[in-house]
Amino acid sequence: MSLPPSPAVLSVVLMLAICCPLQAADSSVDFASQIAPILQQHCVRCHSPENNEGGISLETIDDLRSGDYVIPGDPETSGLLELVTPQDDSPAAMPKDAAPLGAGDVALLGRWIAQGATWPGDVVVRERSMADASWWAFQPIDVPHESSPKTPSTIDGFIRAKLAEHELRMSPPADRRTLIRRVSFDLVGLPPTPEEVDAFVNDPDPQAYEKLVDRLLASPHYGERYARHWLDLAHYADTHGFERDMRRDTAWRYRDYVIESFNDDKPYDRFLQEQIAGDVLWPDHDPSVIATGFLSAGPWDYVGHVETKSAQLRRSARALDLDDMSTQVMATTMALTVNCARCHDHKLDPISQREYYQLQSVFAGLQREERLVSESSLQEYETQKQRMIARRNEIDFQLRRLEGDGIDLADIVGGGNGSMTGVFRQGIDPRTAKVQTRDFGKLGNVVTNRFSESEFEFVDGVFIPDGDGGRAEIPVSSTGVTIRGLPGTSGNAWDMIRNGPVASQHSPALDGIDFTQDGRSLLGLHANAGITFDVAAIRRRLSGANDTPGQAASAPLRFTARLGYFGAAGSHHADAWVFADGQKLAEFRNLGRDDGLQEIDLKLDRSVRFLTLVATDGGNGFSHDQIGFGDPRIRLQTPPERDDQLARQIATLHSARKAVTAELDTLGPPPRFYGVIAAGEMPEVRLLSRGDPESPSGDALAPAAVSALAMLDPKLGTAKTDDGQRRAALARWITNPHNPLTRRVIVNRLWHWHFGDGLVDTPSDFGFGGSRPSHPELLDWLAEELVRRDWSLKAMHRLIVTSRTYRQSSRVSKPVSEGHAAALRIDTDNRLLWRQNPRRLEAELIRDAVLFASGNLNLRRGGPGFEDFDYQDAYAPIYTYKPADDASLWRRSIYRFIVRTTPDRFLTTLDCPDPANMTPKRITTTTPLQSLALYNNDFMLRQARYFARRIECAAGADVSQQVERAFRLALARSPSSREADLAGEFVRRESLFALCRSLFNLNEFVYVD
């Protein structure tokens, strides 16, 4: 049945008549090269013999003719044109759930029908079942010569050209307030301050926006923003994942490397090369070595690699490990889903199973583990640390002398100077006085009653006692001082004399006091052991005297401690003794756990030179005989009297100590990071039948990349090429300027991060299973610009965000204008970019914005991540989240210690992704739980209270001023008069806290327009 032509179809016919009056006669449409590709791309996926929706197949012309969809020579009444043309207020009916046909394609179909709808009998249109070497993504970058007048040379030119095909135009520019909020969140992940908004809105400079963009790109927060995007791709976390979700306490160095690389605008090709093979290409450059943390960022099965006794399970875990590395590198850099070829040839893309295992062989020589950055970095670190510690030690000595706090004996054993700066659990061997750090059990080669001198400044020496029933005379000093009267012992000894608990100690806590926490200390001795301290040297230091004897050097001292038995309860017990110059000052016989802590406060008169502490086994063997002196100190009996001058001295020293401590904190832990190391031998990689590690087949495979990119040689070495050269070759292959995928993928990711969708909206799949580019010419132009701009990502950001396309309003006019009505009808999903896309903030940005508004955002950068949980070491570690009500927990979310198996529930509710998986594109859901979390979560309630306090401090009791300030901090704008009236009434009726809580729950707070 023939239908009357609709006005829309008539307009197409009229356009053909006006614009192309001679083309129907003089320019024949070639079906195979011009029409068949349109049907193949847009139609046959739903209309083929295998999937004939509506009973229509478009493999041949038969169904089109039988249903009057195509009437040769009569485009006006052909139903096909009506289906692909927008009708009044409705979008085109076909293609369904896909981008509409361009006006040029519709016009071409009309010309083909007008010319008789010739369809050669030997041409069958079939849906493409997979990509091959001719696939668009595998072709060289195609940028027409700029001298052509029809070739756009700007982002806006490409966008306008595509819009013109559909008779659409861009939306008006966004207002300045909207624009500064948008670009601030986009480039640094934080809202602008009210003052920054005012300055920008009122800046008369025509280059005001460009200056704003440059300032944001120069901000150190830019790197924090874009590192979060990159770490999503790297599926970074601070724990292993799997069953034993153990900590990776040094993984943060890779996170900081990413942040600094973005801030430094490191060329993108160098950025990739460092992460794949930086330790090989630049072995003497510490950041390049740390960059290889990229290869180890994903989850790792500790049980499968280390604990299992099954060789089969080890092979299975190793296969998954290599798959993770190979997949991450290729998906992140080139958007290739190589892992689909693990069990068989890729079903959609030209990647063979053999190529998959050749890629895997690139990483076959790597193992994940914590490693040293470099020997030189460790040496430099230790030099700096010791210099700072020595300076702080000297300050602490002076403070303890002036304040009368004395010297900590446990700290001395740890290598410090008595000022709590020694190494925790460092020990002195009671047999030899040598320093040890590792744990020991029962000691061999024990010689009792032999004194060994120590090299520590305040430790005279150590010994292992055996009193022989009181008959033995035991030397306890370098000057020949001895003690008598000790009971006989087993003559055995266990572990070291420790700064902290001894090896296998039952507990460091007694009577509810944990002597490893809250600035406390513990001098641990396991019977049988003795240690002698040089009191004369300590006295000189405390009194401020030099080695010349004098009145100050003979000041009387006190020894204080809390002595206890720290072994297990039951029948176990031990003895403890205190001597001064060989004279017994105190003894504690048969101490058990039930006896609790014993207070020690002993005077050491002016003549005392040595203090000796002894632990003996009580005659029942040395099992569990764990004696500890808690908070052991020697101090002046009479602290110096304080006057104004002394108070100023103390204040100056405290200030100096704070500065040195800050330097030490900045220095951080030793230069180790969680990364990869090369195995001793390069293991062979063979093709695994159906991906089964138990079914290898064929010869050992040489390393190679995929061959689909015809412009590149896929060979990466031979079977004898070492690990480093394999990775270096792959890094160079990926970043080869002739590799079209690497450039297309990263500029598409940048576009995705700025618009919410990429030009290809499957950013990690450029193969047949992914989407086709909405603007292929623009994609290639951007890819070429990246090289022209020296691989600078900041330059590409600037290019994108200063475009008219980016600066469009995201709002649809109300009432809806004719232009917006047409755009909504033709391009509901805004793939043609006739406006900007409003976007919800990611979970981390919402959290950071809340802290920003409340005034609590801690902008400290770098270093180990903050831990908003209590950690319990168990077979499967337990991470229990706690209220984040401390400044150390209010840092930007990029610095959060990320746990794989126990994610933060609040952030997860707001769609924070699972770090076990690579996340090229975050999902955005809308659920009731999100509203409940934003309104009732403990973090939100606490920050709303802090927000209210901040407003009260700034605006005083004036409610109108409170409302004004609250809106400006939360939304970067002033309230409308109606909002001001309602909000003021709400504050008076409820509270300022209630208003702040409500502002945090506005769509306007969690969305950017």
Tell me what the structure shows.
There is one protein chain. With 1009 residues, the chain is an alpha+beta fold. The chain is 38% helix and 12% strand. It is built from 34 helices and 28 strands. Strands 4, 5, 6, 11, 14, 16, 19 and 21 form an 8-stranded antiparallel β-sheet that branches. It has a 6-stranded antiparallel β-sheet with strand order 7-8-15-20-17-18. Strand 23 and strand 24 form a beta hairpin. Helix 23 (740-755) crosses helix 25. The radius of gyration is 37 Å and the shape is elongated. It starts with 6 loop residues before the first helix and ends with a strand.
Helix content: 25-40%
User: What overall form do the CA principal axes indicate?
Assistant: elongated
Secondary-structure-derived class: alpha+beta
Tell me the number of helical segments per DSSP (H or I, 4 or more residues long).
Answer: 34
What labels would you give this structure?
38% helix, eight-stranded antiparallel sheet, 1009 residues, 12% strand, single chain, alpha+beta, six-stranded antiparallel sheet
Q: What is the gist of this entry?
A:
With 1009 residues, the protein is an alpha+beta fold. Helices cover 38% and strands 12% of the residues.
Produce the secondary structure layout.
Blueprint: H1 7-19, H2 23-26, H3 31-42, E1 47-48, E2 51-52, H4 62-66, H5 79-83, H6 103-114, H7 155-165, H8 176-188, H9 194-201, H10 208-218, H11 220-234, H12 252-263, H13 268-281, H14 286-290, H15 302-307, H16 311-334, H17 353-360, E3 366-372, H18 375-403, E4 407-408, H19 409-413, E5 427-428, E6 435-436, E7 452-453, E8 459-463, E9 474-475, E10 482-483, E11 497-499, E12 509-510, E13 513-514, E14 522-526, E15 529-534, H20 535-543, E16 557-565, E17 574-580, E18 583-591, E19 598-604, E20 610-616, E21 626-636, H21 644-667, E22 672-678, E23 687-688, E24 696-697, H22 723-734, H23 740-755, H24 776-788, H25 793-801, H26 818-826, E25 839-840, H27 843-854, E26 869-872, E27 878-881, H28 905-909, H29 928-936, H30 938-955, H31 959-971, H32 977-989, H33 992-999, H34 1003-1006, E28 1007-1008
Antiparallel strand pairs: 1-2, 3-22, 4-21, 5-6, 5-11, 7-8, 8-15, 9-10, 11-14, 12-13, 14-21, 15-20, 16-19, 16-21, 17-18, 17-20, 23-24, 25-28, 26-27
Helix pairs in contact: 1-6, 3-6, 8-9, 8-10, 10-25, 11-12, 13-22, 18-21, 23-24, 23-25, 27-30, 29-30, 30-31, 30-33, 31-32, 31-33, 32-33
